[in-house]
Amino acid sequence: MRSYRDLFRTPEFTPFFLATAAHTAALTIGGLALGTLVFRATGSPLLSAVSMFGPQLAQVLGATFLLSGADRLPPRATLAGIGLAAAIGTALLALPGLPIAAVFGVVLVQGLIASLGTGVRWGLLNEILSKGGYLLGRSVFNMLSGLMQVIGFATGGILLTLLSPRACLLLAAALYATAALGTRLGLSARPPRTSGRPSVAATWRTNALLWSSRSRRLTYLGLWIPNGLMVGCESLYVSYAPHAAGALFACGALGMFVGDMTVGRLVPPGLRRRLAVPLLLLLATPYLFFVLQPGVALAAAAATVSSVGFGAGLVQQERLMELTPDELTGHALGLHSAGMLTMQGVSASLAGSVAQLTSPATAMTVMALASVCVTLMLATAARRGAPEPAPALQES
Question: What is the pLDDT of the chain when averaged over all its residues?
């Protein structure tokens, strides 16, 4: 597959794309509304950050107990059910008088359910496009995510000046329901990619198989940690600039859009393989300047430039697919997403804790410095290791 036009000529790609767009818009508007609601109620940077990115913390539970379902459940029914569950949970968050403890309980359940969806979704994309078209297709979805976040955060920021956070949550719930309906009507029924019933034992066994290769381990760590630490910076936008958080999120999403388009479509494969470390360093470096507590305009510029570095994820995912057999792609991609989102949730909590003790600007600087150090350590470890062939994995 050589062009975006080829992608949209592929059967089922367009309805899958549109359903994912609605789901991403819901996630964006709902997250900003919930973070604003919690910050207004508590005044806490930590609670605000965790409310927005807390569902990611549940990803570690999904990776531990549920992830075998990514290849063992029918994808259309599973994705539609996950979208419907997200709609119901978001509507519950809009209930007046809901205690903060109950809010975080709903957030935890939402994250646990969503942990299964990432593996199912990206495994299905690999199935629709075949392995040769995955990187181009995933770049389109990452660009979609960036574009929908630009639109969603900008729209959410405007809506929050006109409506209450609870009304915005109800809008997000409606978008989740629309995504679920689009999935159900727009995709054909497919059998699971792997036989057998989902189980904790199967999840652990496949996780161990995927983790057994040093090359895959380093690839997973590179996908999880630097990315997660920088999302910790983003989780502080609401407390750093309460009245301009939507603009900061939108600028960051715009940078991510540019990075994914450049890496996925414009950079030749030979050069692309060498860009992971430079892009990860670009992701972190602009946030080091937050030690100077820049104004909103400079902060938005830093967020835009930094987020171009999220294009590193495409390079790393391409490497992961090279190291993974077809029958385990859903599980492998689900493990990638679960680990990445878990790290994002941990980093949001860590960044919020540092901000609580110091300031949001100081916390952003600390997280960026940590991301630079981790990136350099992983790059050094990769250079020291001998190249590994991609072993064939077999499940029992």
Answer: 83
